[in-house]
Amino acid sequence: MSAAVLTFTDRGIYCPAGDFHIDPWRPVDRALITHGHADHARPGHGAYLATEPAAPVIRHRLGEIALDTIRFGERRRIGGATVSFHPAGHIPGSAQIRVEVGGDIWVVSGDYKLAPDGLCEAFEPVRCHAFITECTFGLPVFTWRPQQEIAAEINGWWAANAAAGRASILGAYSLGKAQRLLALLDPEIGPILTHGAVENTNAVLRSQGYALPETRHATPDLDVKAHPGAMVIAPPSALGSTWARRFGRAATGMASGWMRLRGVRRRRGADRGFVLSDHADWGELHTAIRETGAEKVFATHGYTEIFSRWLATQGYDAQVVPTEFGGEEDESAISGEDAA
User: Which residue has better confidence, 220 or 7?
Assistant: First the structure.
């Protein structure tokens, strides 16, 4: 192949031929954004490009910005590069970004998962020469059970708590995970209440046509006693807070891929952990990489050193790329920060 299609700078992933960055973490003139989580869509850029379904949430989070949109699969020429956005399956509107220069094709995955969740656009493999992949859960211990099994566990937990006269407070990131959980809940069990950060995001996604069950914003003046046995969806940072204590004798849970590790649930102070992630597990990472046909793989945010060494044993030209991604569902988020 010729000169690198993408390079790695102190501002982020850069395309010299198109003079743009992908998910930059410092202000740049032109930013292509994979999705709306705060570690990928940051303020301060001159111009933004994102998918049509990702744009409303990005505007909601960043305010008045110069944001252009592109349809999934649409090809657009930017300088000497041709770009297109393809579903990543991570959260609604999330994309992988394909960049082609002189016949060389590189793909930036952003964050992704392969298993369809029934809410966001399903992951589509994109053939390329070089693949830049996350590996948040790049260890063999991280394997996800089928979503329907986790949904049954959560609904069973909620029903048991409701029967005992307790509310159920479930920690979930306000963009993506919260809405995925809402779509899995059985509204026949009881009322569903939401923290403001979750409900505001719900409103944006509902306006786009994403199907979510009826919820009620748990405002300060809401009479929680009038909603016995409720399911309450809140950011992880709200667990154990004054806001959560208003629900009285409540059971608490946390939904995250990190619940696969012993000790993490205890550190979060939750009664119950549910292993549910919007990132690829160990097997999905390998499947995604294999289906790209890429010979060169760059590992970013996660177990990068271990994962890249394993890829090298499988015959890939694998390298580690330091980035400032990883705020959603990483260790700092589990320790208390709602980075999503």
Answer: 7
b/e code 168-182 from CB counts within 10 Å (16+ = b): bbbbbbbbbbbbbbb
Would you state the structure tokens that stand for residue 70, as one six-digit string? 């592109």
CA distance 55 to 229: 36
Q: Which two tokens stand for residue 197?
A: 């950060």
- Cα 36 to Cα 49: distance, rounded to the nearest angstrom: 12
Q: What is the predicted pLDDT for the residue at 267?
A: 64
193 vs 225: CA distance, rounded Å: 12
Cβ atoms of 231 and 197 closer than 8 Å:
no
pLDDT (mean) for 114-121: 96
Contacts 24+ apart (CB under 8 A), 56-59: 56/204, 56/205, 56/207, 56/208, 57/92, 57/93, 57/175, 57/201, 57/204, 57/205, 58/33
Are 143 and 285 in contact by the 8 Å Cβ rule? The answer is no
Write down the mean pLDDT value for the chain: 93
* pLDDT at residue 333, as a whole number: 37
Q: Which residues contact 157 (CB under 8 A, 6 or more apart)?
A: 168, 251, 253, 272
